[in-house]
Every structure is written in C-alpha cells, then in structure tokens.
Design a protein that fits this description.
alpha+beta; Arc Repressor Mutant, subunit A; Alpha-D-Glucose-1,6-Bisphosphate, Chain A, domain 4; two-stranded antiparallel ribbon; 9 strands; 25% strand; globular; ArsR-like_HTH; WH_DNA-bd_sf
C-alpha cells in the first residue's frame, strides 16, 4: 500500500491513470500525446505506477500496451472507503469495472501476480496435469507443443473436459499461448478466447502475467475477472508454501 499511495500522490501519475481509465491499453506514444512532458519523464512515471502494481504492461509486437490494474484500487476502496460509507467517492469502484470492459482488438482482462519461485516451477505448475488438478480443480492435459490440443479435465474421474483448445505458442519456461473453447464449439474459431501466460524472472521471484482476450460479452468478462485471481492465488500458495489454500477460493462469495 505504501507504494500505491506514493504513486497516487503525484498529479501526473493520477493523470496517466485517468487516461487509462478512459481508454485502456495505450502505448507510450498515445499516453504522451495529452501530457506536456518529455517522453523519458512519462516513462519514469509509468515505471512508478507499474512498481506499485497500479498498471501492467503487455507487449504486442514492437509496441508495449499499458493497462490499468484494478486490484490495488479495489483494496483501497474496501479498506478505507466502503467502511466509511462515502457514496460520492464510489467512482473508485467504477475503475475496476471499467478496467475490465472489453476493448476492440485489445485484451479483455490482464492480471499480474508475483510468486517466490522459479520460471521452471511456474511453467510446471501451469502445464503439469497433477499440479493443475491440485490447485485448479481441473487437470490441464496436453503435450504442450504448438498446434497440439489441450483439455481442462474434471478431477472427479469422469474424464469430462469443460474447456478445450489449441496450443498457439509454447516457449518454456517463459511464454505459453492457448485458445479456449467450450467442447461443443471447438470447431467454431469465432467463439474461441485466447489466454497468454508470460513468466518473467527477477532475482528470487517471478512475475506472472495472464492475458485473457477475445471474450464475448460482459458476463464472460465478469467470470474471468473473478476466476483468474482465485486460481492464481491458489497456484501462488501451492508454490510458496507447498499447500493450496484451505478453502477453494473461487467459492468465496464476491459480496
């Protein structure tokens, strides 16, 4: 929280968050257009926001897109605003909802978490059927080669796959891209979504970025926005403590 409040104390950084609130997923050049400041200075402000986890970045070819990360703002709302019942400040809650709204040809949801582990262990946790079964409640089954099929299989012994797809990119232990579809819509590519896992090491920790794009509607985005944090929190707990969370996090009521 200290880094968050420090980042929010600066007018320019708040202006940058406002720009992303209005139009999420902007490049550095787009953000510089409406701020009277040198490109290098804007880059430094963005670095402070990223260090506070208020924004996340995703590379698209030679460009880097910046996204508002709603999690720290949501925590501020819950801890310091909601309990004092100040409705006129409820706009902070809208930041989270707006940040998860669909953007044309841009990711529908981006989530970043930091894990005390190695890239190899995080990769294994994402691709090993036994480990995914332990923290996800489904086993992810594939040989994880580009072009291969993958399945999200129930752990009740039925062998039923609730999600299927294809491996688009596989670069262990740093990058995995897969398509997602309901089994009955496997042949309809227009109904597929796309998930990218990016694993970046930094000394003794790993930054894991999950980008889920091509979502169909607000209902699907809402499911993704609540589902990924729960699954990734369970993954983080397993890798850092050797145990999953004592209760299934996706069953915790949102209200």
């Amino acid at each position: 929280m200290e880094k968050v409040f420090k980042a929010l104390a600066d007018d320019t950084r708040r202006a940058l968050l406002d720009r992303l609130h209005e139009n999420n997923g902007q490049t550095l050049g787009e953000l510089c257009e409406r701020i009277s400041m040198r490109r290098q200075s804007v880059t430094q402000h963005l670095a402070v926001l990223e260090a506070a986890n208020l924004i996340s970045t995703v590379r698209r070819g030679r460009e880097k897109l910046h996204y508002l990360n709603p999690v720290p703002l949501h925590e501020i709302q819950e801890r310091w605003i909601d309990k004092f019942e100040r409705p006129r400040l409820s706009a902070l809650g809208a930041v989270k909802r707006r940040a998860e709204e669909a953007m044309t040809d841009k990711p529908g949801f981006v989530y970043v978490t930091y894990i005390a582990s190695t890239p190899e262990r995080v990769w294994e946790a994402l691709t090993d059927a036994g480990l995914t079964a332990a923290y996800w409640g489904h086993a992810n089954v594939s040989d994880w080669r580009p072009g291969s099929r993958w399945e999200h299989v129930r752990t009740d012994g039925s062998g039923v796959a609730d999600v299927v797809g294809r491996v688009v990119e596989s670069e262990p232990p740093t990058r995995l891209v897969t398509t997602w579809a309901a089994p009955g819509e496997e042949e309809r590519e227009d109904r597929h979504s796309r998930v990218t896992f990016e694993i970046r090491p930094h000394e003794d920790i790993v930054r894991l970025t999950v980008t889920h794009e091509d979502l169909r509607d607000e209902g699907e985005r809402s499911d993704v926005a609540s589902g990924w944090p729960a699954v990734l929190s369970n993954l983080k707990s397993l890798l850092e403590t050797g145990r999953t969370l004592p209760q299934e996090p996706w069953l915790v009521p949102t209200r």
